[in-house]
Amino acid sequence: MIFERYDIIVVGAGHAGCEAAAAAANLGSKTLLITMDLRLMASMSCNPAMGGIAKGQIVREIDALGGYSGIVSDRTMIQFRMLNKSKGPAMWSPRCQSDKMLFSAEWRSLLEKTPNLDFWQDTVVGLLVEGDQIKGVKTMMGGEIESKAVILTNGTFLNGLIHIGEQHFPGGRMGEVASHGITEQLKEFGFEAKRLKTGTPVRIDGRTIDFSKLIEQKGDDEVVGFSYTEPFKINKQRSCWIAHTSLKVHETLRKGFKYSPMFNGRIQGVGPRYCPSIEDKIERFAGKDSHQLFVEPEGWTTEEYYLNGFSSSLPDYIQYEALRQIEGFENAKIFRPGYAIEYDYFPPEQLHHSLETRRIHGLYFAGQINGTTGYEEAACQGLMAGINASLTLRDEQPLVLSRAEAYIGVLIDDLITKGVDEPYRMFTSRAEYRILLRQDNADTRLTEMSYKIGLAKEERYQNYMKKKAKVHEIMDFLKETSVYPEEINRLLEEKQSAPIEQKMKIAFLLLRPQIGLFDMTNRISILKERYNTEDRFIRECLEEAEILIKYDSYIQKENELAEKLNRLENVKLPKEFDFHNIQSLSYESREKLNRYQPETLGQASRISGISPADINVLAIFLGR
Ligand SMILES: Cc1cc2nc3c(=O)[nH]c(=O)nc-3n(C[C@H](O)[C@H](O)[C@H](O)COP(=O)(O)OP(=O)(O)OC[C@H]3O[C@@H](n4cnc5c(N)ncnc54)[C@H](O)[C@@H]3O)c2cc1C
User: Fold this and answer.
1) C-alpha–C-alpha distance, residues 417 and 407, integer Å
2) Is residue 179 lining ligand 1, measured as CB closer than 6 Å?
3) What is the pLDDT of residues 80-133, one digit of tens each?
4) Within the chain, which residue ranges are assigned CATH 3.50.50.60?
């Protein structure tokens, strides 16, 4: 086979690879996406869902930057919920259940419509490298394909090893082969590789579940969706269901512990602490009689259900016996058992913030290969690697998002300055500026930036400008317009808020925690006329205007703090510096700084074990 020379080759069409390929091609790079099986693009290896706490914010950020994950999530959604709606807006997190098969199909269709993008179904077995410069890849079938940059997004496939009870066999995912050769070659180039582990639960035949014994969990009435681009509507939703384990279920699972690869030491890789297997949960929380499980449909038309919370690598017959002791599952049949998988990852401190590797120019890593877990975490890294590989080829500075600009910035900075010792997933608690990084304002934070580099297209930019103008118009109106006691006091009474005695500006009333703008748009005639509408665009603008008014003082405080810390980010440290030269740093700090090679004083300050005193020493060393 004769191939053209590409600007960028993306290896793997998982969530990271698909976003990387889309971004690179949309930025004008001649891109080739190579993957083992083109039918399984952005396959949902685990739960059929996108978003959730902190992850929903990431999907909106990807969308605001011009990525496709939000669009695909909206088009394939079967249920939507805004999580944490009872808490402050910093915590609101969109989450949807997805039709898993449609999700892959929709990704493929979008990518096939993307200019500058070619596809090749094959397995990459090695890299072409000259000196410290990437030159392309070697594949199992196609020989050698040349390119100026390569983005590796191999997911759980690098030397993947699947475990079910005492059985274990190579595989990248159930039914798919593992990838060999890349880790071994990269180790020869001096890269460090380690092992991690993750797991997935049993899939059940819905025709054999007694749903009358489960608790139904419906979607929200108001469906917001993820993408800022498309007018979004979903006419029906599918329910999820809640079930519970019992002591009897736990006893049955315990019978299998002696065969468990987790407990008998056969699994060496570290698993995600916050997403433990059911056997881990009953061992760690031995005092708990029951654990909650979510029964999630895998699509509109399929009868396959995913049992969230029941991930296991116990022998399949033990999983099956325990399952049948759960109320509602007495006669359940399964499509496949749960399993665990161990795989190689490359500790991410070997990367620059652009996701380019420090050792080989033009080689980028994104997704699970960097020690993360989750579709959203993978997708956003893919997007950034695709953007940065393209910008570098255009001789432009990479796009590095700060911790105050995006969860994506937090994620990448955490990976590079802190490394990982277990699969990394995003939590809101990882971000310092949560009130700035809300799901509603991802477009305000990121779209202009993306437009400037040419990724966000004109239509998206114009949508954003339209929204910005509308939000300002609403805010001005709310700040200038007053309501009278006779119009509002009844509502205030219902909300247990003190009545007013003279007219008051609406914006001022909004500062009261009990009072929401949508309560008023239903009741106060002047607001009713203007803003009582089902139009999603107007409702989103109202929501953002309300948040900006209600939380103004918090937003200002976080902005000031971010500004202060940002000054440290602008102080550059020398490249490839040997910190052992600074004797006044402790030996441990010198070791850590040498390992992580922070590019700025801000990054150095976030390395665990680097103290404020060390930062002072570095500042003095830099003449500050
Ligand atoms: C069993 C299991 C359980 C999981 N459980 C969870 C969970 O509970 N929670 C959670 O958040 N996430 C979970 N995940 C992880 C989630 O699936 C990943 O985080 C996410 O899919 C990673 O995306 P990615 O793009 O990095 O890689 P993947 O989605 O794994 O995609 C990798 C792609 O690369 C291709 N590929 C690999 N090697 C090559 C090669 N050499 N040549 C060509 N193509 C190649 C593969 O075919 C695949 O298409 C689980 C994954 C598995 C497999």
Assistant:
1) 15
2) yes
3) 999 998 888 889 999 999 999 999 999 999 999 999 999 999 999 999 999 999
4) 6-201+344-453
